[in-house]
Amino acid sequence: MTDNPVKTRREGPILEVTLDRPKANAIDLVTSRIMGEVFTEFRDDPEVRVAIVTGAGEKFFCPGWDLKAASEGDAVDGDYGKGGFGGLQELRGLNKPVIAAVNGICCGGGLELALSADIILAADHATFALPEIRSGTVADAATVKLPKRIPYHIAMEMLLTGRWIDVEEAARWGLVNHVYPGSDLMAEAWKLAELLASGPPLVYAAIKEVVREAEDMKFQDAMNRITKSQFATVERLYRSEDQLEGAKAFAEKRDPVWKGR
After folding, report:
1. How far is CA 48 from CA 42, 78, 123, 187, in A?
2. Which superkingdom (predicted)?
3. Which of 114, 153, 227, 257 could make a disulfide contact with 100, Cβ separation 3.0–4.6 Å?
């Protein structure tokens, strides 16, 4: 459909997901539910290994919640669909790499969407903020996530004042991994996606599950669960063809051929 606010492009094991809602790529309830379906299918399709999420155009990645839609009746506590707002931040069992390619203004729920990715690449004109404080609302997911991703005091300043930061500052605090000229951003995102797609999917799954589950665990408790294969993805990995293939490829001094099984 030409009016679909979520455009997808798939090439082999890579899925590109583009928010395309002029003028600013804001997310309303319908768009969020579509994104939830897209990312659920990505999660469940064994042939797709990596996703890139970005925004259409050169000005906006995503400003988050569509306030115009809210003024027309979209409830802020309405049905966001699978995975919660934007389809990513509460999607259970997502054990595949996701890259956010931030191509412009990234604020509010848009920043929360980017924070739901594993790696954030940004154009050199990208800017970031959490302006919810100015409209009397809470940036809920960012309030949970941001103080764990960048220095506490910087995160609190952004949350409490709504101030904007440019991409250089975002990179300085570790909010983004790499900064590229806007014209190069998507090519670099695809280059990274191709690198990840060539890697071992079962190892990626184990990494993501361990990182997610171990966040609130004591170090030794997490280590004990890993070594005793008490994570489902680790158990699957250690009993897989890929585990044996990795050892064989190393012994034979060749590149491994990962099958995801």
Report:
1. 6, 30, 25, 19
2. Bacteria
3. 114
